[in-house]
Amino acid sequence: MTTEDIRTYDVIVIGAGPVGENVADRTTAAGLSTVVVERELVGGECSYWACEPSKALLRPVLLRADAQQIPGLDAALKAPLDTEAVLAHRDLMSSDWRDDGQVEWLRSAGIELLRGHGRLVGEREVAVETPDGGTVRLRARHAVAVCSGSRAALPALPGIEDLAPWTSREATSARRPPPRLVIAGAGVVGVEMATAWQALGSSVTLLARTDGLLPRMEPFAGELVTERLREAGAEVRFGVSVTAAERTPDGHVRVTLSDGGALTADEILFATGRAPRSEDVGLDAVGLLPGDWLATDDSLTVTAVPGDWLYAVGDVNGRALFTHQGKYQARVAGAVIAARARGDALDTGRWAPHSSTADTEAVPGVVFTDPEIATVGLTAAEAERTGRDVEVVDYELGYLAGALQYRPDYRGRARVLIDRDRQVVVGATFAGPGVAELLHSATVAVTGEVPVDRLWHAVPAFPTISEVWLRLLETRRDS
C-alpha cells in the first residue's frame, strides 16, 4: 500500500512565469509558505519565447537603422547584419532555453518549486502530475493563484495541424531565417517579427485583414511602421487574409488568400491573437469552463468562484496582456492575499494598494519596430467610443533638436489626450526612433493625474527628445 503524497502550503501558484514568480515573491515576503507549480521552464513565455528573445533579435536591427543615418557611421554599416551573431546573442538572452538561473532565484527567495502539471481538483486543492508519473496533492490554507499565461491562437483553417505553422514561439526561436516568410497578422507580434526577419535575411510578406498596421493604436503609428517596412524591402498588403494553407511535398507552404491570390513561402507565421492557457488547469472542478479567460475584479480575485481564495493573475485573466502589466497585477494580488491571510480589510479604491486600476486606466506598451511605438492610456478612437471629452494635441518629433541629433532624417509624431474637465493627461502615443524611453514619463503623468498646468514646470533637458513635452504644451497653448 502506498501513502498519498499530500502537502499543505499557505499559497499555491500554478505557473512559474514572471507573473507566478512575482506572486510567490510577494506572498513569501509576507511570511506565507508558497509553492510554485511549473510544467515547462521556470521563467515562462517571456524569458524563452517572447520578450527576451524577440528584443534580442530586434535590438541590433534598430541600432543599425539609427546608426545608418548618422554621418561618420553610415558608410561603415552598409554590410548586412551578422545573422549568426544576432541569433547567438538571442540564444544567450534566452539562457539557451535552460532555467537553472531562474530556479536558483526561486530557491534564494525561499519559494518551493514543484515540477509538473497542476490542475485544480477542488476548493484550495491542486493535483500535480510529476515528470516521474506520480501525483502530488497540494492543499492551500489561503489561496490558489492561476498564473498559466496565454498561448498563440491559431485560425480555424482546414489541415492546420499538418501545416506546422510558426507561432510566436517558433518565430523567436528559429535557428535560421527562412528565405521567404509570410506573416498573417497586423498586431505587435506580426510587425515586430516582420521587422526582425526582414533585416536578418528573409523576404517577408506581411498580410493584414485591416486597412492598416497596429489597428488598436493611433493610425499614424501604423502608417510610419508600414513606410519603414516597405523601405526595408518587406511587402505589406492590406485587406487580405489567409483562407487556406498547406505544406507541399518539398516542404514549402502554399497560401491561398481572400482576394483570390496565392503565395508560396518557406514558412508562415500566424500572429493572429492570443488565447488563455486555461484549457487544462482543472477549471471544471470549481464550476468554470475550461479554455475561458478567467474574469476577476480589480483585486485579481476570480469573481465566479465564492470564498475569495482563487486568483487569476497575468495573461490568463485577459485584462492586459503584457509581461510588465502581469507583474504589476502580481504585486497587487500578493498584497491582497497577504492582507486576507492576516484578516485585514482590503483597500480597493481607485489607485489603492489592493486594486489593479492601471489595467484599465494606464496600460503602457512599446512596439519595438523601426520606428518604435510607445503608448499609454487612451487613444483618440477609444476616447470617442467611450464618450470621453478630450483635447487631442499633436507634434512632429522631427522638429526637435534632440530628435535631429538622433537621426538627421527623423520621422515621428507625438500625441497626447487631455481630459477637458479634469485637465490631466489621459493618453499618449509616441512614434519615432528612441521613443520607448519617453513612455514612463507619460505613464507617470497619467497615473499621477498631474495637472497640465504643473507639467509646465517639469523642464525637459535640451537637446533631448523629451523636449516634446514642452512642445506639446506650447502647441496646445497657441492653438
UniProtKB/TrEMBL annotation:
- Gene3D superfamilies from the UniProt entry: 3.30.390.30, FAD/NAD(P)-binding domain (3.50.50.60)
UniProt GO MF annotations: oxidoreductase activity
Question: EC number(s) per UniProt?
Answer: 1.-.-.-
Q: Which top-level group of life is the source organism from?
A: Bacteria
Q: What cofactor requirement does the entry state?
A: FAD
Task: Outline the extent of the FAD/NAD(P)-binding domain.
Answer: 9-324
Domain Pyridine nucleotide-disulphide oxidoreductase dimerisation per the UniProt entry, residue ranges: 363-469
Top EC class for this record:
oxidoreductase
Per UniProt, the keywords (alphabetical) are: FAD, Flavoprotein, NAD, Oxidoreductase
Which family would the database say this protein is a member of?
Answer: Belongs to the class-I pyridine nucleotide-disulfide oxidoreductase family.
Name of the protein in its database record:
NAD(P)/FAD-dependent oxidoreductase
